[in-house]
Write a structure and sequence with these properties.
Helix content is 35%, strand content 21%. The protein has helices at 16-23, 75-87, 105-118, 130-138, 145-148, 151-169, 178-192, 199-208, 242-245, 280-289, 307-317, 327-330, 356-360, 377-386, 393-406; strands at residues 3-8, 29-32, 41-45, 48-52, 64-67, 72-73, 94-97, 101-102, 196-197, 213-216, 254-262, 265-267, 301-303, 305-306, 321-325, 335-344, 347-349, 363-370, 410-414, 422-424. The strands form five sheets. The protein has a ten-stranded mixed β-sheet with strand order 9-7-5-2-10-1-11-15-19-20, sandwiched between helices. The relative contact order is 0.15. The structure holds guanosine-5'-diphosphate (GDP), 6-O-phosphoryl inosine monophosphate and magnesium ion.
Length: 426
């Protein structure tokens, strides 16, 4: 059964949206399976930039977009996103799982309040209500998309949610009045009703009929709630295996995993980041790479490629091959580095630690390489025709070392934000 998953191998914003858009033409459906509107996936086509938060990026290629049960859906954001797509002349075919959980204004308030309460230990969340929505799902007090279509039972469930939140939100601002939030949710339910359905049945039917389905990961493997840099993580499982649970297809439906990584590393929010460069190189990457969050506009922390983290992510995801993004940006530097191991407490390791304390104390062991300044678009265009041999030796060395360090082939090199700025390698 041909299901292919695209995942980020780092801390998010690797360029997943661009890769999904680039290959979506080969699939019948594109599925989001976890996360929520904390995601910001950028697609640039014909000079037009579009950022997706909940709608799968594949809809730009006219494919069925599925929002699976594992996603937490802020109906306000989804309706706004659909409206703005329609204004741009894009009428997405969308299927919204009736089992997806709903992020309300209460969850966003709670996210904000909890972040403020953490003081210096703040996680730097996107404040999109993600953690509180997943917490309520696990606590079995959440509201699901199906509930928005049944106003009577929704009223009872929302009452329950208000009483559960009362002690959490007391003294932390004024929650929306019950009737106002209830009315909004019923209204969003009516707008979204035509899209709501049993996504697991549709997807399993498609897979049985031999249709190809693409799963679009959000966040990155190092933000996974179990395997990421907990507690500086998000609140969902972000690794490829989550595609099955988050959409209701069997694990055996996944036949291929594509790992997306930047040629360097970025991170938004708090938490350890061993290869962060707070000096000139990091500043250059941020400036040239436009490293500001697609969802929150926050400056992204920038640093060198971390192959210890990369290998760990390849292992967790079972990535079959990697796509390396933003080689044009890293190419602005004269010398570039890859961390191939960590020194922790005097010992060298190539394993990614389990605690933020240990990771925070890890000193990267770097290998240095010449950069590939002056590699212009014409050179990249030639590489599309002639393959990697058309690229400078320094760049080939760098990519070769990444392949070796990650232990999987690199199948694509991205050199700009646009759909066509991508070289596929055999
Ligand atoms: P996602 O969350 O993984 O989909 O990634 P984001 O969209 O948040 O961040 C990636 C950013 O890099 C977006 O602004 C993309 O348009 C841009 N981008 C993607 N690939 C390249 C590339 O190869 N070169 C450059 N310069 N920008 C790229
Ligand atoms: P995409 O899909 C980068 C980060 C936040 C914060 C942590 C927890 O565009 O790659 P949350 O709001 O999820 O509770 O925040 O996770 N984060 C992301 N960083 N890209 C993302 O998504 C992210 N989604 C969440 O900055 O550190
Ligand atoms: Mg992003």
């Amino acid at each position: 059964m041909p299901g292919v998953v695209v995942v980020g191998l780092q801390w998010g914003d690797e360029g997943k949206g661009k890769i999904v858009d680039s290959i979506a033409g080969n699939f019948e459906a594109v599925v989001r399976f976890q996360g929520g509107s904390n995601a910001g996936h950028t697609v640039v086509v014909g000079g037009q930039k579009r950022v997706f938060h909940l709608v799968p990026s594949g809809v730009l290629q006219g494919k069925l977009g599925v929002v699976g049960n594992g996603v937490v859906v802020d109906p306000k954001v989804l309706v706004e996103e659909l409206n703005s797509l329609e204004e741009a002349g894009v009428r997405p075919r969308l299927l919204l799982s009736d089992k997806a959980h709903v992020t309300t204004e209460l969850h966003k308030m709670q996210d904000e309040a909890e972040e403020l309460g953490r003081g210096g230990m703040a996680l730097g969340t996107t404040r999109r209500g993600i953690g509180p929505t997943y917490a309520d799902k696990a606590a079995r007090i959440g509201i699901r998309i199906i509930d928005l279509l049944h106003p009577d039972s929704l009223r009872e469930k929302l009452k329950g949610l208000y009483s559960a939140k009362d002690h959490i939100l007391r003294g932390r601002g004024e929650p929306p009045a019950f009737e106002s939030l209830y009315g909004d949710l019923v209204r969003y339910g009516e707008i979204l009703r035509p899209y709501v359905g049993r996504a697991e049945y549709t997807l399993n039917r498609m897979l049985s009929d031999g249709s190809r389905v693409l799963f679009e990961g959000a966040q990155g493997s190092l933000l996974d709630i179990d395997h990421g840099t907990y507690p500086y993580s998000t609140s969902s499982n972000t690794v490829a295996a989550a595609a099955a649970i988050g959409s209701g297809v069997p694990a055996s439906a996944i036949s291929e995993v594509i790992g997306v990584a930047k040629a360097y590393t970025t991170r938004v929010g708090g938490g350890p980041f061993p290869t962060e460069d707070t000096g000139e190189a990091g500043e250059t990457l941020r400036r040239i790479g436009g490293e500001y969050g697609a969802t929150t506009g926050r400056p992204r922390r920038c640093g060198w490629f971390d192959a210890v983290a990369g290998r760990y992510s390849v292992m967790l995801n079972g990535a079959n091959y990697a796509m390396i993004m933003k080689l044009d940006v890293l190419g602005e530097l004269n010398r570039v580095k890859i961390a191939t191991a960590y020194r922790i407490d005097g010992a060298t390791t190539d394993e990614f630690p389990s605690t933020p304390e240990e990771l925070g104390g890890a000193a990267p062991v770097y290998e240095e390489f010449d950069g590939w300044r002056g590699t212009d678009k014409a050179v990249w265009e030639r590489a599309k025709e002639e393959g990697i041999s058309a690229l400078p030796k320094s760049l080939r060395n760098y990519v070769g070392r990444l392949e070796e360090a990650l232990g999987i082939p690199v199948r694509g090199l991205s050199y700009g934000p646009s759909r066509e700025e991508l070289v596929y390698l055999d």
